[in-house]
Design goal:
Keywords: Signal. The chain is an alpha/beta fold. It has nine helices and 13 strands.
Length: about 375
């Protein structure tokens, strides 16, 4: 009874009344292998060299846009160098400040997660507590308010965020499978209640990596894809998928059920392998034409004539930049390491955005 009352109170504070809903500006649609925004293919009529760009969705991994740490023992790790303390609202403010610049370079999408990603880039242990869900799968208002601000700005800019729900190392914050299912339902209903039509859903990041809950693992994750797809409002439902670890080819249960397919290029240092992953994905049993999107790849070489970004493009797959602050690097490096400099000030960030602009014809 107490849990039910708590759930109602949380929904009261995170879900708007119908009168409070804003007018939305951006709608995403999938037709075959292409993405459309407001009825037009992305990067309309764009070609680069011999490659077709129209219909792709170039993106970057920006998962920490609503990050916080509810563990008092670890929160000091994320202090800003200029203030000596962590500030979740500052992090979101600065994220929003830079979104238009990303968009002007041709970035149409970014991945943002309700449980973030490793704020250290890669880490086996995750003692910090970063989750927009409480243990019962109810939404935490402060996280959702930050997310709302980012999604509102994306809607204004004509961008299509991929909203991820779960991250390994944090999924155990939910007490059981019932809580996971409740979380998927609550998050999807929240997106509907806000009226977003510019959002894609990623159930979880790298479903084949260290998830505690069986329903988030490869054999059953399609159940959550189908759950999110089944939740409609006014005849509209969200496009839903999940991802796997670097170099992994999606399994038939996800290929058959997902609306678009997510690949990761981590660990794939040969660009030729990136192209072959796309071909192998299209050959999986149950595949029908749908977009293939890399939304995580920590390989760069943006000054070279052949790199992972270009290889994905050559195979007509969208590509996503993943960058973290490596050992002894400065604050300006990396978009996953907290605290984050959301600007374009490092050489890697500049390299990515310049190549992105060249390929997509950005401003």
């Amino acid at each position: 009874m107490i849990r039910s009352l708590l759930g109602l109170l949380l929904l009261y504070f995170v879900l708007p009344s119908s009168q409070a809903q804003q007018t939305r500006h951006t709608t995403v649609e999938i037709r075959g292998e292409q993405f459309f925004i407001n009825g037009k293919p992305t990067y309309e009529k764009r070609k680069w060299k011999k490659y077709r760009i129209e219909g792709l969705l170039m993106n970057s991994r920006m998962v920490q846009g609503i990050f916080d740490d509810m563990n008092s023992l670890t929160v000091s790790r994320w202090k800003y160098p200029d203030t000596g303390r962590w500030d979740a609202d500052r992090n979101t403010d600065e994220f929003i400040t830079h979104m238009e610049t990303w968009r002007n370079h041709g970035l149409l999408s970014f991945t943002i997660n309700l449980q973030g990603g490793s704020p250290e880039g890669y880490s086996r242990q995750q003692p910090w507590h970063n989750s927009a869900f409480n243990r019962h799968g109810e939404l935490i208002p402060a996280y959702m308010k930050r997310l709302e601000r980012i999604l509102d700005r994306a809607d204004e800019l004509g961008m299509v965020p991929m909203v991820g729900f779960f991250y390994f190392g944090q999924d155990e914050r939910l007490e059981d499978e019932t809580a996971v299912i409740r979380a998927v339902r609550n998050a999807t209903e929240w997106l509907h209640a806000k009226g977003y039509r510019n959002v894609l859903i990623e159930i979880n990041n790298e479903s084949n990596v260290r998830y505690d809950h069986e329903i988030l693992q490869p054999a059953r994750v399609h159940e959550l894809i189908q759950l999110a797809q089944s939740i409609e409002k006014d005849g509209y439902r969200y496009y839903v998928s999940t991802s796997y670890g670097g170099g992994f080819i999606p399994l038939p249960n996800v290929v058959e059920s997902a609306d678009y397919l997510l690949l990761h290029g981590n660990g794939v240092s040969d660009p030729n392998r990136i192209a072959s992953m796309v071909a192998e994905t299209r050959a999986v049993k149950g595949y029908t034409p749908k977009p293939i999107v890399f939304n995580e790849d920590d390989h760069f070489d943006f000054d070279k004539d052949w790199n992972n970004f270009i290889a994905a493009t050559s195979a007509y797959a969208s590509w996503g930049y993943f960058d973290f602050r490596m050992k002894d690097e400065g604050f300006e490096e990396g978009y996953q390491s907290v605290p984050v400099d959301w600007g374009i000030r490092s050489s890697r960030k500049k390299g990515f955005f310049e190549l992105l602009k060249t390929i997509t014809g950005g401003k």
